[in-house]
Design goal:
The complex is a heterodimer of chains A (373) and B (401). Chain A has 373 residues and is of the alpha/beta class. Chain A is 38% helix and 18% strand. In chain B, a hairpin with a 2-residue loop joins strand 6 and strand 7. Classes of the chains: A alpha/beta (373), B alpha/beta (401). Chain B: It is found in: Mitochondrion matrix.
Chain lengths: 373, 401
């Protein structure tokens, strides 16, 4: 009887999977990728180059840094065997277990441990398995890491700490494998928050974060780990923090985003160009805190219209900070209200992900309204 | 009779378990008996002590405890100094001269006994009731007072509340108010020392209340699995503000947790400075040699209020406090020193008078110092001041200057 029950169950489940893999309403699969990756065309590459996806570029950066700084350590949950996203592959074999090691499963411990290492002058690169699980370490990051230098009058600091965490939508991550928690940390003086949009930026910005003398949180959009493939320099290079990048120049409207959303915005910019004949200026913020208000405001002063877009929910999302600053700095240049196209004010859903994300259609709609205002 | 049977039973059980373990050479063994594991398996951890409170005449001689008389006297005078500064700064707060204070009454031995057993380069991560360590290491009264006043001589640049001391020079990591956050940090720092191949250890202090925080679990587990040279010293003073230990934990204190994490543990009479010294020295030797963590639980009693913002008679009786006063570390240690003619009333009077004068002078000077420059509100947030901080500063300067 049990056997027959199991049998029916498995066939039922099997048939469900089968149905899902067939096109439903023209969609080939429920695990859609909501963007097209736009390779980087602006960063200068020197020396030998190689085609890499984002996890390989991060891995390359870690190899280069651990080689450069002989006392530095890399640790987190499951990093020894290469990490659940393969970012730390080969590190343990090359640098030994005393420098690349697994920790117990405890996020507050991981960050606290990293602060201690940094206190005594060791470069500590910590990995939180998913940005969704960074909250147990919120106290250590916000009350401790961020305030260490300030509260001791500069006697002690933990500037040598970098926390890496995969973030953002991945197609089917639901509530706890999809979050973009940058805004929580953007409210914390003393921290640096950085998000790359592809392999070239991931490597350059990560190396900058590691070398920067402030505690940094490096959020890596996990959907880009394998989908974002680019030509990356094998050299040790850094990209500037606190600096936004104008990814595409335009004059009709400024589109601001970071991480995966940059690719959504680039695709929308193409759509706007084709459908409406307007050229969009796309800005990758790169650093969320401290952020480059100057580049953003200069662009808005030029275009007079602006859309901010991020995956995280609207209310108190980092878009609010950008919008408020723009209206303060560019009041006389604004020709339309500042638009915000973001995730809804709900937890991140599972099957409704395609309706939740601020995809190119929602961005297009908002741009169209702003241009017609 | 019954207890005899019970103890025999436990003994036999333990032997069986022990044999199983040996035979199987692994971390687990099997049993056919369906029963819970409970307190019977872990007898109460005894408290190590040297100076005997009830039978003071039986105290060991100085030779027996293998200690230098100068060291003993310095330990005592530091305890007294801590008492003096506590009394005077407490009064300062009552008069509204400083905003806040926390005294160390009753816990002088835990701090100074352990500090005396450490090397001055061992790094200390503390909670807030460990000012005695700084005094032992040579920090001036005026440094402590300046911090409480937040004047321009304060190393923290007047940014933190009083008692949040820190000194790079004396290897005392600046305190912060969030409880227990220093524990996993201490473990990381200890791993760092091991990584740099230094023959030093980290010493980390915390209260029994703080041990309930998640960070304590993180720290003990990390220290054990990542094998870090750190000595955890728990000041079990029976209270976390108003919460007595009965409401803090259900097991045999903090010490009983150590073995569960695989950490060598010792429980010490925290009112006995010699016991505290010996235990810390013993722990330090082990930690340095094996590069492994140690847990010390020091049993003591918080004689004073939790802080100047607390009236402890709201939740405990005067009678209870008084019953502990004859067991306080200073009294206990003074009796011991007097017994061997290392200290007397005359010396005590002179020492107290001289130090009271010094503290008073330091307070007078501290009050005259100005607060740090307004610019110090903005510096040190980051290594370099970012635009969004400096921009408003530049704008406001016209108004501020």
């Amino acid at each position: 009887m049990i056997l027959s029950k199991l049998y029916t169950r498995s066939t039922r489940r099997g048939s469900k999977f089968f149905r899902l893999s067939l096109p439903i309403n023209g969609r080939p699969s429920c695990r859609n990728i909501h963007f097209t990756y736009y390779p980087d065309t602006r960063t200068v590459r020197t020396g030998e180059v190689k085609e890499m996806n984002m996890f390989q570029a991060i891995n390359n950066a870690l190899h280069l840094f651990l080689e450069k700084d002989k006392t530095s350590v890399f640790f987190g949950e499951d990093v020894e065997f290469g990490g659940v996203f393969r970012c730390s592959i080969g590190l343990k074999d090359r640098f030994g277990q005393s420098r690349v090691f697994n920790t117990p499963l405890c996020e507050q411990g991981i960050v606290g441990f990293g602060i201690g290492l940094a206190n005594v002058g060791i470069t500590a690169i910590a990995e939180i398995q998913f940005a969704d699980y960074i909250f147990p370490a919120f106290d250590q990051l916000v009350n401790e890491a961020a305030k260490c230098r300030y509260r001791s009058g500069g006697q002690f600091d933990c500037g040598k700490l970098t926390v890496r965490a995969p973030c953002g939508a991945v197609g089917h991550g639901a509530l706890y494998h999809s979050q973009s928690p940058e805004a929580y940390f953007a409210h914390t003086p003393g921290l640096r928050v950085v998000v790359p949009r592809g392999p070239v930026q991931a490597k350059g910005l990560l190396l900058s974060c590691i070398e920067e003398q402030d505690p940094c949180i490096f959020f890596e959009p996990k959907i880009l780990y394998r989908t974002a493939i680019d030509t990356v320099s094998l050299d040790y290079y850094k990209l500037p923090l606190e600096k936004a990048e104008i990814v595409r120049e335009g004059d009709a409207i400024t589109l601001i985003g970071w991480g995966t959303q940059i690719h959504v915005l680039l695709e929308t910019a193409d759509l706007v160009q084709n459908e409406l004949g307007a050229s969009c200026e796309v800005i990758d913020l790169c650093s969320i805190l401290p952020w480059d208000a100057e580049t953003v405001c200069n662009s808005v002063k030029k275009t007079g219209r602006v859309i901010v877009s991020h995956e995280a929910p609207l209310s108190q999302g980092f878009g609010s900070e950008i919008a408020a600053t723009i209206q303060e700095e560019c009041f006389l240049s604004l020709e339309a209200p500042i638009g915000r196209v973001t995730g809804w004010d709900t937890p991140f859903p599972h099957v409704h992900e395609p309706f939740y994300l601020p995809d190119k259609w929602r961005c297009f709609e908002s741009i169209k309204n702003t241009l017609e205002y | 009779m019954i207890s005899n049977i019970v103890s025999k039973f436990i003994f036999r059980r333990t032997i069986v378990l022990y044999r199983c373990k040996i035979r199987m050479e692994s971390n687990f063994c099997y049993t056919n008996e369906l029963s819970f594991i409970n307190k019977m398996y872990s007898p109460v951890i005894p408290t190590y002590r040297v100076l005997n409170n009830e039978y003071i005449q039986k105290s060991p001689t100085v030779q027996e405890i293998e200690m230098d008389t100068n060291l003993l006297v310095k330990m005592y005078t530091t305890m007294i100094s801590l008492n003096i500064i506590d009394t005077m700064l407490y009064e300062c707060q009552r008069q509204g001269r400083i905003s806040f204070y926390m005294t160390n009454f009753g816990e002088e031995a835990v701090q100074i006994g352990s500090a005396a057993a450490l090397l001055s380069d061992d790094i200390v991560y503390a909670q807030y009731r460990e000012s005695g360590i700084l005094l032992w290491r040579g920090l001036n009264f005026s440094d402590l007072i300046n911090q409480c006043y937040g004047n321009c001589k304060d190393k923290n640049k007047g940014r933190q509340m009083p008692v949040h001391y820190g000194s790079k020079e004396y290897k005392f990591v600046t305190l912060s108010s969030p409880l227990t956050t220093q524990l996993p940090q201490a473990v990381g720092a200890a791993y760092g020392l091991k990584q740099m191949q230094k023959n030093l250890c980290i010493v980390c202090y915390f209260g029994e209340g703080a041990a309930s925080e998640g960070d304590a679990h993180a720290a003990l587990n990390f220290a054990a699995t990542l094998i870090c040279p750190v000595i955890f010293i728990c000041r079990n003073n029976q209270y976390a503000i108003s919460t007595p230990i009965q409401q803090q934990y259900g097991g045999d204190g903090i010490a009983a947790r150590g073995p569960a994490y695989g950490i060598n543990t010792i429980r010490v009479d925290g009112n006995d400075i010699i016991a505290m010294y010996n235990a810390t020295k013993f722990a330090r030797e082990y930690t340095i040699q094996e590069k492994k963590p140690v847990l010390i639980e020091a049993m003591t009693y918080r004689i004073g209020h939790h802080s100047t913002s607390d009236n402890s008679t709201m939740y405990r009786s005067n009678q209870e406090i008084n019953s502990h006063k004859n067991k306080i570390p200073i009294v206990l240690f003074k009796k011991y020193l007097e017994q061997f003619n290392l200290w007397d009333m005359n010396k005590e009077e002179n020492f107290i008078n001289f130090n009271k004068k010094t503290v008073l002078e330091a307070i007078t000077i501290a009050e005259k110092h100005k607060i740090p420059s307004w610019e110090d509100l903005f510096t040190d947030v980051y290594y370099k001041m970012p635009n969004h901080i400096s921009h408003p500063v530049v704008e406001e300067t016209g108004w501020l200057v």
